[in-house]
Amino acid sequence: MTDRHTFDNSPRDYALELVEQGHSAKHLLLCALKYMSHDDVRGMLDANELSPRFDPWECDECGRVYEDGRHECDSDDCPSNSAPGFVAFAHCHLATREELNALPWVGGGRIGTIRGFTLDRVREIFGEPQETDIDGKVQCEWTFITPRGPVTVYDYWWNAPDELSIGQRGDRRAAYWIARVFRDIGARASSRREVI
Questions:
Q1: Strand, helix or coil at 7?
Q2: Residue 196, domain member (yes or no)
Q3: Of 79, 117, 135, 147, which cross-links 61 as Cys (Cβ 3.0–4.6 Å)?
Q4: Which residues on adjacent β-strands are paired with residue 156?
């Protein structure tokens, strides 16, 4: 049985002895967490490297994983890298007919938006679309092959005249990549559902 002296002089040891004597460690943890302030809990988690800042972080755009607490990518081939001279388009291309035929269906859900580009401007830069008049919903669609996989840029029936959609299935980083391509050539592009 634990004694009063341990309780008064070494409360941590007292609590550990309770667990050794059969008290539930889970119940003791719950008691401690309920007693501690939010700052105490955050401090305890951080001191034991259990806070989110110690989680590995993966760059959304290039996939590199960092385990040193950083949340900023420094990879030379990452689209988020602000190094002068990086051109995301140099690392991707329009899919050829053979590549299109070999791909599973790419379209997927709309996960991004490109603004500030008309269909004529996209045709001028990338050529004619690979697909047209799809199910009466999509007028034009271009499929790009990025280092992260295929991604489509398309004109959905309700897009504004200077707006295109980004869609893909699989690795979401492909959408991040193509958004960077369009930002590099002057569009406002977001690789997330939020429109910028």
A1: helix
A2: no
A3: 79
A4: 138
pTM above 0.70, yes or no: no
CB 174 within 8 A of CB 148: yes
Please state the length of the chain.
Answer: 196
More reliable by pLDDT, 130 or 47? 130
Burial label, 135 (beta-carbon count in 10 A; 0-12, 13-18, 19+) = exposed
Tens digit of each residue's pLDDT (9 = 90 or more) over 166-195: 887 667 778 888 888 888 777 776 655 433
Expressed as residue numbers, the domain containing 129 is: 88-190
Q: Let me know whether 106 and 151 are in one domain.
A: yes
Q: For residue 116, which phi and psi values (nearest 5 degrees)?
A: 95, 15
Angle (CA) 171-177-179 rounded to 5° is 115
195 inside domain: no
Q: DSSP label at 90?
A: G
Pair 69, 94 in one domain: no
Residue 127: inside a domain: yes
Mean pLDDT rounded to a whole number for the chain = 78
How many domains, in total, are found in the chain? 3
Q: Is there a contact between 148 and 91 (Cβ–Cβ < 8 Å)?
A: no
Tell me how far apart the alpha carbons of residues 139 and 155 are, in angstroms, rounded to a whole number: 6
What pLDDT is stored for residue 22 in this prediction?
92
Beta strands 138-146; 131-134: pairing state = antiparallel
